[in-house]
Specification:
The relative contact order is 0.13. The radius of gyration is 20 Å and the shape is elongated. Helices cover about 35% and strands about 25% of the residues. The chain is α/β, with parallel strands linked by helices. The strands form five sheets. A seven-stranded parallel sheet has the order 7-6-5-10-13-16-17, with helices on both faces.
């Protein structure tokens, strides 16, 4: 982790001190109040006041005992590029999530490289049906040992997803026992977000039609990131399955919201 050394911020005006705080958070992404106070050579009470101001400006998000830099995702990354990131972590998350599938489950899963890994790891569970708008599975559909229902709709090449009124109509007649959702950002303040409105609409409908747990599958790099469209407040999430890279403070923050955090190993 990159470190930022600052000799003293005691003589700086608040605006200068705020810039230094942002510089530290940009390097470390998440930090405790104690660590920030030590880095700036100021008191923790000063840091807390500064963080409150920066949070109101939408630049950071305070966590229990610290802060995280808000990272805004403005454009959807191409599916192939996303598939090449955090490959091992996504595989482990997918395998761990698939272990939660039970006989007779009806499952919703949205598009995305992590949910794709979940569906690839479902093996040997009887009477499972999966409804998804993830077309990336088509290449391996012959290898599924569960019933795979691909929702119809308009095709989005960048994310290999189908969306739109036809997708929504098909979903409206089904209720799932579990839903696995891949995201582009998760934040205490802004909830779970994705970058495109059509996909957000489909995910929100999936969550609305889920009778059992809503399960977020996300590697640790999504923590603190904020994309354009809300799909779920944290109060709507039951479980988060992530990797060992997720900061301990982030885990405790999620647990404090009554969310079960499962670390894939």
């Amino acid at each position: 982790m990159e470190t930022v050394q600052i000799s003293s911020a005691t003589s700086l005006i608040p605006a200068q001190r705020h810039q230094l705080l942002l510089k530290v958070l940009a390097a470390q992404r998440i930090a405790s109040c104690a660590a920030l106070a030590e880095a700036l050579n100021v008191s923790e009470s000063t840091v807390r006041r500064d963080l409150e101001i920066l949070e109101k400006q939408g630049l950071i998000e305070r966590t229990r005992g610290g802060a995280i830099l808000n990272e805004r995702i403005r454009y959807e990354a191409e599916f192939v590029q996303r598939a090449q990131r955090m490959i091992e972590e996504k595989r482990l998350i997918g395998r761990t999530a698939a272990a939660l599938v039970e006989p007779g489950d009806v499952i919703f899963a949205n598009s995305g490289t992590t949910t794709e890994q979940v569906l690839r790891h479902i093996r040997g569970v009887p009477n499972v049906t999966v409804f998804t708008n993830n077309t990336a599975l088509l290449n391996d559909a012959y290898d599924c040992d569960y019933e795979l229902v691909l929702l119809g709709g308009s095709y989005l090449p960048l994310s290999k997803a189908v969306v739109g009124p036809l997708t929504s109509t098909n979903l409206a007649h089904v209720y799932a026992t579990k839903t696995f959702i891949g995201i582009e950002g998760i934040s205490l303040r802004y909830g779970c977000t994705v970058s495109t409105f059509p996909e957000a609409e489909i995910i929100r409908l999936m969550i609305e039609h889920t009778q059992g747990p809503v399960i977020i599958v996300s590697d640790h790099t999504k923590w603190g990131a904020v994309s354009n469209h809300l799909i779920a407040r944290l109060e709507q999430v039951d479980k988060v399955i992530t990797d060992r890279g997720l900061d301990a403070n982030a885990r405790m923050a999620l647990i404090s919201r009554s969310i079960e955090v499962i670390v894939a190993t």
